[in-house]
Amino acid sequence: MFIPPERTRGRYSFADTPVKVSFENSNVVLYGAPIEITTSFGRGTVRGPEAIRLTSARQIETFLLDENVDFYERARIFDIGDLKIPASVKNVRKRNPINLASNLSYLGSKIHKITSLIHDAKKLPVLIGGEHTLSYYTLKALSDEKPLVIHFDAHRDMKSEYEGIKMCHTTPFYHIMNDGYIPGKNIIQIGTRQSDREENEIAKKNHVMTFDAWEVHERIDNLLKYIRKVTHNVNIYISFDIDVYDSPYVPCTGTPEPFGLDPFDVRRILKSICSTAKLLGVDMVEVGLRNGDYREGTLASQTLLRILSRLPGLKKPSGILGHRQQVTTKSLNLSKEWI
Fold first, then answer.
1. Which residue pairs from 103-107 have beta carbons closer than 8 angstroms and sit at least 24 positions apart in sequence?
2. What whole-number distance in Å separates Cα of residue 217 and Cα of residue 268?
3. Which pLDDT belongs to residue 37?
4. Which residue has the higher pLDDT, 284 or 165?
5. Which of 25, 109, 204, 322 reaches 20 to 30 Å from 14, CA-CA?
6. How far from 110 is each of 86, 171, 274, 304, CA to CA, in Å?
7. What is the rounded distance in angstroms from the CA atom of residue 213 to the CA atom of residue 211?
8. Phi, psi of 263 (to 5 degrees)
């Protein structure tokens, strides 16, 4: 089911930390989904996992100056690798909605199963992608935990359909509400700055809390206070579309928008999450890579590290091994059970 991280296009495990990590002693399990089959404008998100892995392993130091911590003291990450995508899925054409729906359903069932197994093993599932359609399936898998969803995005992704396609990268948050998995009152959208009238009405009708980009820029303290309050003693899920950042920061994503957030905004918002909140899952999506431009991958990696640094502290890791992630035979056998 998976391509091992060292055999993916990124060639490294995420962050490539200098400590021994097995499935058993991890608290975070990460996998990539290099999927790009419903994108409607720019392309490149199929290389998102590659960009994130390579920049996190080769460019970024493990010590976070702003947090005064080596992130692997909080997040011991076991990287399973990339989900294998059959050629029939990769080559599906959007103009054939029946085949598209069938292939997305197939992928969705795999992602649902993987997320559920990671969660049942009491690990934090982290998905790197890949188009935002994927979030529907991870949220569905965790919906019984009734998470508060913190959705960073330039767009609402609440269309009921787009160009005749029901499930695609512009619709997952409509369907996760409409199918009864996550109620709108449990969704907070941050950084929104592109929408249509119908999406706004859907958000309002479902009691979605919205802090658009102008609210963040002009009254960020309102947002910080709200996040601090509503995340007290609750389960949370963070869905992070890289295009929440202003367009100069994200040169490779498919639908960049002006008037976006900057990294300091995002850091302040993440730090406002109450320490009593329990993080159930994370996805980092719509990250692109084109023409050797790794700025976007670096920003995605740095953001993900800061999300994971909010986890409770671990015991000091032991077994410094050099800059390669190590896996045990038992761990590999466990992942093979997921085929």
1. 103/37, 104/37, 104/38, 104/133, 104/167, 107/33, 107/35, 107/83, 107/134, 107/137
2. 12
3. 78
4. 284
5. 109
6. 12, 19, 32, 23
7. 7
8. -60, -30
Q: Per 3-state DSSP, what percentage of the chain is helix, strand, and coil (rounded to 5)?
A: 40, 20, 40
- Among residues 133, 154, 131, 152, the alpha carbon closest in space to that of 247 is found at 154
Strand partners, 77: 28
Cα→Cα distances 261→63, 150, 152, Å: 24, 15, 10
Count of residues in the chain? 339
Q: Could you tell me which residues come within 8 angstroms of residue 88 by beta carbon, excluding any fewer than 6 positions away?
A: 103
Q: 26 by DSSP, 3-state: which?
A: coil
Cα separation of 153 and 82, whole Å?
A: 24
Q: What six digits make up the tokens of 30? A: 């990460």
Q: Which residues contact 6 (CB under 8 A, 6 or more apart)?
A: 12, 13
pLDDT tens profile 37-63: 767 665 768 899 999 999 999 988 889
Residue-level pLDDT at 43: 73
Tens-place pLDDT, residues 200-236? 999 999 999 999 999 999 999 999 999 999 999 999 9
DSSP state of 324: S
Q: Identify whether the C-beta of residue 29 lies closer than 8 Å to the C-beta of residue 107.
A: no
Q: How far, in Å, CA of 200 to CA of 205, rounded? A: 9
Q: What is the pLDDT of residues 137-149, one digit of tens each?
A: 999 999 999 999 9
Q: Which residue has the tokens 């957030």?
A: 261
Residue type, 181: Y
Question: Cα dist. 121→29, 79, 108, 224, 335 in Å?
Answer: 10, 15, 20, 32, 12
- Rounded alpha-carbon distances, angstroms, from residue 53 to 10, 47, 291: 5, 10, 17
Distance CA 312, CA 276 (A): 10
334: CB partners within 8 A, 6+ apart = 23
3-state helix/strand/coil string of 140-193: HHHHHHCCEEEEECCECCCCCCECCECCCCCCHHHHHHHCCCCCHHHEEEECCC
Among candidates 336, 337, 335, which has minimal Cα distance to 26?
335
